[in-house]
Design goal:
The protein has 282 residues and is of the alpha+beta class. It folds into two domains: 60 residues, no CATH class; 190 residues, no CATH class. The chain is built from seven helices and ten strands. The longest helix is centred in the first third of the chain and has 45 residues. Bound molecules: flavin mononucleotide (FMN).
């Protein structure tokens, strides 16, 4: 079809629509066809407004989410303060991309624009977890960002994004480890939709404050951390590998155990942690 005949067809379509609208408006007000037509036009107009608003707000939402994540990373790194601005604090953190299978850094990729959430939906950038999927991910991104804090070149903190299924939602968090790659310095869950007052306590200061000092791996590098039901017996030999369960929220607590074990294991950051802690020791 030529450009001329296309514009003629569009013109004819528009004329037909205008004629239809005029005919509808000539109908008496109590005619059900008029009621239906007005409702239809209103629905169409509203859906167009909602779609246009959603599309135009998306970049703003993405910028806000990126800023919020930056702020969480700075907080978990222990670098946040009123005196130092967010950008200045974040600039002290080295952001790298890690290939999870090899545990080595990926060079030449803009890490700040890499999204592990997008990668998890892309079959060419993620791996299906058919057999063993304790964290309920379905697919594991092949690459993950990591954030490193150094002092005079010496590694001080390793920050790992972690996520996995709770009872109702996927819980996204950041785990800050000491350079040994096994001892917790800090933990946060910055996105979750567990029940307020029950599972949502996973993001509460009180529960998160139990984590610093906990040792996530055993001597052989196996993830052994466990959120127990009830309270940890502080005198038990394995107390350093155990965290009190969330009261009335055992399923969310189990979700944390599962996602921790997955991300610290061989399909998660295991190879990277072995490399980075070994390298620093050497
Ligand atoms: C409305 C409602 C919301 C709940 N939300 C959660 C939740 O967010 N996380 C959770 O682990 N359990 C939640 N539970 C409780 C679980 O169904 C389950 O009973 C609980 O995890 C068992 O933990 P407990 O053995 O410590 O009581 C909820 C229960 C109800 C009725």
């Amino acid at each position: 079809m030529s450009a001329d005949s296309r514009s003629q067809a569009a013109g004819a379509g528009l004329t037909g629509l205008v004629a239809w609208i005029k005919a509808v408006f000539r109908l008496p007000n109590d005619d059900p066809r008029k009621t239906l037509a007005v409702a239809l036009v209103l629905c169409l107009a509203c859906s167009m407004v909602v779609s246009a608003t959603a599309v135009s707000l998306r970049p703003l939402q993405e910028r806000k989410a990126a800023l919020a994540l930056k702020s969480e990373i700075v907080k978990v790194a222990g670098l946040g303060s009123a005196e130092v601005g967010l950008d200045a604090a974040f600039a002290q953190i080295e952001t790298r991309l890690v290939d999870l299978d090899s545990g080595s850094f990926v060079e030449g990729v803009d890490v700040l624009s890499y999204s592990y959430r997008d990668a998890a939906k892309d079959s060419s950038a993620s791996t299906a977890l058919d057999d063993a999927d304790p964290a309920g991910l379905s697919r594991r991104p092949d690459r993950m960002p990591v954030y490193l804090v150094r002092d005079a070149g010496q590694l001080e903190t390793i920050i790992l994004p972690i996520y996995g299924a709770g009872l109702w939602s996927t819980m996204h968090g950041l785990l800050a480890l000491a350079p040994d790659g096994r001892t917790v310095k800090s933990l946060t869950f910055y996105e979750q939709r567990e029940t307020a007052g029950l599972g949502s306590e996973v993001a509460g200061e009180s529960w998160l404050s139990e984590w610093p000092g906990k040792v996530l791996l055993d001597a052989s590098g196996e993830p052994v951390i466990e959120v127990v039901k009830g309270t940890v017996d502080a005198s038990a030999a394995n107390a350093q590998h155990r965290v009190d369960g969330l009261s009335g929220a055992t399923l969310t607590s189990n979700g944390v155990t599962n996602l921790m074990r997955f991300w610290l294991g061989p399909q998660g950051y295991g190879p990277f942690l072995a490399t980075v802690s070994g390298r620093e020791r050497g």
